[in-house]
Amino acid sequence: MSQFVFKMPDLGEGTVDAEIVAWHVKPGEAVTEDQLIVEVMTDKAAVEVPAPVSGRVSSLTGAPGDKVAVGSPLAVFEVAESAAGSAGAAGAAMSAAAPPPPPPPAAVARTGRVMASPANRRRAREAGIDLNTVAGSGPGGRILRSDLAAAGGQARTDVSAETSEIKVIGVRRLIAERMSEAKRNIPHFAYVEEVDVTELESLRQHLNGTRPADAHSMSYLPLVVMALTRVLESFPQCNVLYDAARGVLVRHRAVHVGIATQTPDGLKVPVLRNAQALELWQVAAEIRRLAERARINKATRDELAGSTITVTSLGKLGGIASTPIINAPEVAIIGLNKAVERPVVHQGAVTVRRIMNLSSSFDHRFVDGYDAAAMIQALKERLEHPATIFIPKAKFS
Q: Active-site residues: which are they?
């Protein structure tokens, strides 16, 4: 027998370290090659790391919440001499050729391992449930949240305790760090405007009544994204990334829209790329696809990076107004609030109209208040006259 030292792999895109989210093995435990051993979190995504060899775990580096540098020892295995040699040779060859690719996402089945999302693994861990004893009802035997509940997996609370402590790790830590950095470093300028979406609602209902057989119901979000791509043609200073290290603004012609999405693991922002080149139903389908992949933790790093402006919507919980935090290094974010019917003065008479507020935030260092307000007013005009959403700027001006 000999020792095989497994080092934190290079997970791509300049990653220098990764945070330990959860270990799935412990010292002394026998593992098989390709068995899940640890979940880690980079600045881009959560990644499940499999064992590179079969053997027995000798030691592990780091506890949940700790960061381990790329190339530093992550785990040590006791393996047969032949296994250590072949694994070492394979690793050396891979390193010489190129950085190793990231391990496959959680949804890919592996022989000898339980299929469950990182969120459900965490719930099981907190509830003290052995996933090997749970029958999964999802595709391919995947364990769902309902399966944990049926197995008695509801979170257990000590009613006699007045407080409890939850360590901030993984996605929640990353969200906290990014939000704190954005509020600390970016002087936010907030602007709220109400929009009469009565005609937009009429269009939405018409589209849903005549939608393609394979299309899902149309929401306001794709229509707003379409209108935004048209408006940004006149306000390119809002479709910008600020490179603080170089002190430059990188202006984009293409509109890559970040879609703020609530998931079981926290807020994620998958990216709708080249939105300006898509048709409405394509926008709607891609938003749904990206959001679903983010919710089940299958979104790739590429799908979670590269946005140039973000749209966020709280749907039915949208409230009257909000002050969204900019998704740095972007300089603007647009928020959709709840659409409600209320009495307003329209064409000289009091009538019931459907009203929705737009709550936006801008980086006041690079977007002047006048330009921010003008952009939202232009977006409002498109939404209140929805036929103009489909007219390019050159023809609309």
A: 364, 368
